[in-house]
Amino acid sequence: MSKTIIISNRLPLQISIENDHLEVTPSVGGLATGLKSFHKDGDSVWIGWPGLTEEEIPEKLKGEVQKKAKDENCVAVNLSSDEIDGFYYGFSNRTVWPLFHYFMEYTEADDTYWKFYKQVNQKYADEILKYYEEGDVIWVHDYQLLLVPNMVREKAPEAVIGFFNHIPFPSYEVFRTLPWRDEVLEGVLGADLIGFHTYDYERHFLSSVSRILRYQVDFNEITLPDRIVKVDSFPMGIDYKKFEQAALDHFKNTEDQQSELQRRLNHHLESTPDAKLILSIDRLDYTKGIALRIRAFEYFLDKYPEFIEKVRLVMLAVPSRSNVPQYRRLKREVDELVGRINGKFSTVSWTPIWYFYRSMPFENLIDLYTSCGIALLTPIRDGMNLVAKEYIATRTNHTGVLILSEMAGAAHEMNEALIINPNNFEQVAQALCTAFGMPEEEQIQRNKMLQKRLRRYSVEKWANDFMKALHATRENRDAFKSI
Ligand code: ADP
Ligand code: G6P
């Protein structure tokens, strides 16, 4: 029976070693959380990296890592610490990630990183080929594996290969600055179908292909000498039912079942009746606009002191890629900003910012989503932003206001949110005032529309639509051959 081979750099499970034992936790990030539901329900094998380098896993635990992965229909790929440095911290996260998010000043062009990127992409391609059988469908994910589709195609010319990019694709003027732009585009074009979250990213990609490689592009089809490649946008959704159900369960908890966090959040809301909690959740990443958000919050408190002791910004930042200098710098900047603003505005009974720098279990995430009447998400660039969608899905009584940056892919589908430019502090402050004053009927009306759309365009539909379009390319290929 044919199967789907999913391949991404990060597996949905993160393995770590605690006191000589393996600990398994869910991975953070939109790709892993979104795709997990598709993988769980279908007949697929997922190949990827479990989060530890070869050197970090003691010999006696190596088999155990593979077993933990296998329990979840995954295959763990071994990467050495040199490979992780050059491929993951290097080319993926110091070259492609900043460039594709328009942070050109952070983008490094280093031949050694590129060498490791090719080497590890080849390793992933070889791993796919070990599991590939005729009739299988191969689905490659994200910017760490841009060369994999063509590497697989070279060895298995008949394979049906899809590629989905979870981050923005930048405009031609930005992409053209990459020294290895031709190789990267040729690498992705090994796929039969290439998917993006938004039409804009799709357009940027097609424009780069036609201007750099000079292939013929008609609407959303690229004609290669021997094949046609289709490009389309598929905005990723969430596992709506899972978040909705988790929120309903959260409200059923009796007092003794509540988490400490839930108790503290409830206590805050009960002790200050007209208070509101403003939530933000992100990986600690410079693309997420975390420092901008804190500064905008300071602007808001300066300009509208009547909100002092009435609001609290609850900020969860999950540690991410801390070997890359920009992430370490951002961590210091955020620590400093939180300290300064808490010092500036705190009173004996109130601190304006609650800042958590850690990962939290799913139940706590739901505690936060359900307790905070406002979500403030201000990315400077973001491929999609699933947190925005998860927040709305957990608002089971339909109240709550989402303030969302127009730079997030999700903003295209979430018009009923308050859409802001995160660089415009006045606009952010105004949106906060609007959110505070928004009558409940209006909140309900907006959220019901959002919920209806999110329920319909769930992650399941996203994956099915992509798969359907991918299967259709097989038929097109036969038609192309007969011309
Ligand atoms: P990105 O993919 O850039 O990290 P998204 O907003 O698209 O951004 O996705 C983040 C995902 O990570 C969401 O699905 C969210 O639920 C999950 N997540 C965020 N913080 C945590 C956390 N502390 N623990 C577990 N999952 C988290
Ligand atoms: C984003 C990327 C994913 C990545 C995730 C977490 O969602 O699109 O590919 O897995 O961030 O980042 P990490 O570097 O920890 O895998």
From TrEMBL:
GO terms for molecular function: alpha,alpha-trehalose-phosphate synthase (UDP-forming) activity; trehalose-phosphatase activity. It comes from the Bacteria. One of its GO terms (cellular component) is cytosol. One of its GO terms (biological process) is trehalose biosynthetic process. Transmembrane segments: none annotated. Signal peptide: none annotated. Belongs to the glycosyltransferase 20 family. In the C-terminal section; belongs to the trehalose phosphatase family. This is Bifunctional alpha,alpha-trehalose-phosphate synthase (UDP-forming)/trehalose-phosphatase. It comes from Christiangramia fulva. The chain holds residues 1 to 483 of 737 of the full protein.
